[in-house]
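Lecture 7 notes: from sequence to structure.

We start with a single chain of 113 residues. Read the sequence below before looking at the structure.
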Amino acid sequence: MNKKDCGTKTSPWIISALPGQVIHISIIDFGSAFYKQVINQTDDLPLYGYLEDATGKTPFFGSLERRRLLHTSKSNTVKIEIVPVTERRNMGFLLHYKSKYINDHHSRYERCQ
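Now the structure, written as tokens:
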């Protein structure tokens, strides 16, 4: 596979966590300052890509905020498809993800007494 294909519609990124965990995905949007200056409505923000998990496929867009929580999965796997630069305004962004157990008190280890 060509590295240029990674994250596309035909070869989305697949992020997997351990069973019983969810995935939090945050975005750092380098275009946010530009959008604040030239865009008046959030309806005009560019489409960056799609996130897909057990609940379906959801689009994500540029933001007026520099950093924000983008998605919390309903399962332990998320697919990420990035819209090619030729189809969106050329603003950079970074996705950050981390996994977490659904219940904070949940432990993957059992203890015997």
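The longest helix spans residues 32-38. Keep this in mind for problem set 3.
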